[in-house]
Design brief:
By secondary structure, the protein is of the alpha+beta class. It has 6 helices and 13 strands. The chain has helices at 3-11, 35-40, 58-66, 141-149, 166-170, 176-180, and strands spanning 18-24, 30-32, 53-54, 68-70, 76-80, 83-89, 94-98, 104-106, 111-112, 114-119, 125-129, 132-136, 158-160. A hairpin with a 4-residue loop joins strand 8 and strand 9 (111-112).
């Protein structure tokens, strides 16, 4: 976490959390969701416009990456100064990039050690790692398949899972804003 963020949290400790305004898609892209986008439906609903506006400013993306974490209940957030901005996840908290040598990096550029490979009913490939669960970026499925075939991540078989079971199994919340309505 950035020092300036820690300082802001100490200076203003009681800033309310923000829900529904930031989303992470299945390719590791960030989306800002204004009230109009939120009114169209859930981030992962597939409704045109519900994702919001793609974040393109590299400095903002880097700031989000440095301050992206999970709370004790598995809700992922971006610590924006004193305010926690909870993240709507399209698929998983991490999106993996797989390099030619089998190394795995998160969408935030953190290295990860693979522990398990899983595929869901739609054929999407997930990797469980020391950082948690993530979806393999669509452009890197071939490199991941090659790493699996070569045993770069150990002699593990790919296990079948249902996508709707992954949050409970791996301890993350896809839509923290949905918890507000309970």
């Amino acid at each position: 976490m950035d020092d300036i963020v820690r300082q802001a949290m100490a200076k203003w400790p009681n800033v309310p959390h923000c829900h529904g305004w930031l989303g992470l898609d299945a390719r590791g892209n960030w989306y800002l969701r204004d009230a109009a986008a939120q009114a169209l439906g859930a981030f992962a609903s597939g409704v045109p416009g519900a994702k919001g506006a793609l974040v393109r400013l590299e400095r903002l993306i880097d700031f989000i990456h440095r301050n992206y974490e999970a709370d004790a209940t598995g809700q992922w957030y971006f610590q924006n100064g004193p305010q926690r901005v909870y993240v709507e996840l399209e698929a998983a908290p991490w999106i993996w990039r797989v390099l030619a040598d089998g190394a795995v990096l998160s969408h935030t550029s953190r290295p990860a050690r693979v522990r398990e490979a899983l595929t869901d009913e739609a054929g999407r490939l997930y990797l469980a790692s020391d950082l948690g669960l993530g979806l393999v970026h669509t452009q890197d499925v071939g490199a991941a398949a090659e790493a699996l075939e070569q045993g770069r991540w150990g002699p593990r078989a790919v296990r079948d899972v249902r996508a709707d079971e992954l949050p409970a199994r791996f301890g993350f919340v896809k839509s923290p804003s949905m918890l507000l309505n309970r």
